[in-house]
Amino acid sequence: MLTGSLARLVLGLALGSVLGIVGLPRLDLSAALPPFFHSLQGAARPVASEVRDQNATTPEPVPTVEPSPVVPVPQPAVAGPQVLLDEHFAAAPDGWPDDPQGPAWFADGAYRLYARQPNRFVAVGVPLPTPVGDAILSAQFRKLGGPAGGGYGLIVRDMTPASDRDGRSQDGQYLVAGVGDRGDIGVWQRDRTHWIDVVPWTHSDVVHQELDSNVLVVTTRGAAVRLEVNGQVVADVTYDGLPSTGNVGIFVGGDLNQVALEWLRIDG
Q: CA-based angle 188:194:198, to the nearest 5?
């Protein structure tokens, strides 16, 4: 039999072998570290993170795309009124009746019209290449002499060729808008051999009387006819008795009435 000491030795060796095979539980040394060591371990972790960030690849910057400049699209030009005539009679223009012994002639920087024959008016066509539709006729007239009661104005929508409107013919189909030297305004249609009142003689304070100049503006738009005198509208009517286009001209009425046309402009 083994002695007591030898038995304890054998038992210890056997127990050690068993424990070596099974394995002893590991000791958690961090639990035994002092508190300040824990704080050092926590501070060291961001350093490793910073090192990883420095080694990471820096992304390329995204290029900035500049917007393309906006190129304005040209807009089609809107056609405005066209100047068909702008005459101030510094010299005698071609194509106008010019007879100092007749009803119309050029003198002293104006176009003169004279109703020499009793009971006969003077109607002169303005030479333009084509008939006129919608238009604006502007003119300045001044009476030179003759008895009171004469008048003058502008002709529109004349169906007679301008070359035949020579100041002597009394026939035709057209519209006249004008003023009288007593301060009246009116609009009439010439229908072959007689007159039709569209706006009969009506007094207007804007008309300069006797020998003072007056500026007349006649505007036609379709069947609408408007008369302005010295910047004021004095008549605005719609009249379907005439065609949509025609020639234009100058009118003077009243026995022995003498008138100067100082300038004329036509926009169409």
A: 20
